[in-house]
Specification:
Number of strands: 2
Structural class: mainly alpha
Oligomer: single chain
Low-confidence stretches: 17-33, 37-47
Mean pLDDT: 75
Distance between the termini: 83 Å
Strand order of the largest sheet: 1-2
Helix content: 55-70%
Order of helices and strands: HHHHHEE
Shape: rod-shaped
Largest sheet: 2 strands, antiparallel
Strand content: 5-15%
Length: about 200
């Protein structure tokens, strides 16, 4: 009888102790595993294809406008060809006029030396100095047109290279500076938090 009571009391104490330990363990685990969920902005990164500036440079150097097409700036292609075409037209016009006045000037010089020589261009017998002035003017305009053509051609691949560098640069209206409260953990004290301010700058 005494042994039976002793066994029952021992089992009761053991079960009670186990329940107490389980409850306490759950409480401790619950406290230690408590999570503070903070609301944060979710930033979705756009899958942008970065452009290679060297490739854009080479494309535009080989064929004007090709670098702009590579950077998907198609609206710039007509601008490039309009500028190059306009300058090329001026070069061709001034070159033709220069050659015409140069040939006419040579004919007049020959006619001055030999009055029997034939005049085919300036038959109205203008002053030779006037023809020389026009010849020099068209030569200067031709040379200036060639220089402008080279400048436009260089600007074409500079533009393509810069566009490739800045292709994924964010210029949207979402560039902003924000201040907001936030719960921050204190790392020196376990299970302790504090309230603070966060400053965020989006660019």
């Amino acid at each position: 009888m005494t042994v039976r009571i002793y066994i029952i009391i021992s089992l009761f104490i053991l079960i009670s102790s186990e329940n107490f330990t389980q409850t306490d363990s759950i409480r401790v685990d619950t406290e230690s595993d408590t999570l503070i969920i903070l609301e944060e902005d979710i930033i979705e990164l756009e899958n942008t294809n970065k452009k290679n500036p060297t490739r854009a440079f080479l494309y535009s150097a080989v064929l004007p406008g090709l670098g702009q097409a590579y950077n998907t700036k198609y609206w710039k292609i007509p601008v490039v060809y309009s500028a190059l075409g306009g300058v090329a037209f001026l070069f061709n016009y001034n070159n033709k006029q220069y050659n015409r006045y140069l040939y006419g000037y040579k004919e007049l010089r020959e006619h001055e030396a030999d009055s029997t020589s034939q005049i085919t261009i300036f038959t109205d017998n203008p002053e030779i100095e006037t023809i020389k002035q026009y010849k020099d003017k068209f030569r200067r305009n031709r040379d200036l047109s060639a220089l402008i053509f080279i400048v436009v051609y260089v600007l074409n691949f500079i533009d393509a290279t810069v566009d490739a560098h800045l292709y994924d640069f964010d210029i949207s209206d979402d560039l902003s500076f924000k201040i907001r409260p936030e719960v921050l953990p204190i790392y020196t004290l376990q299970n302790s938090n504090t309230i603070g301010l966060t400053f965020s700058f989006k660019f």
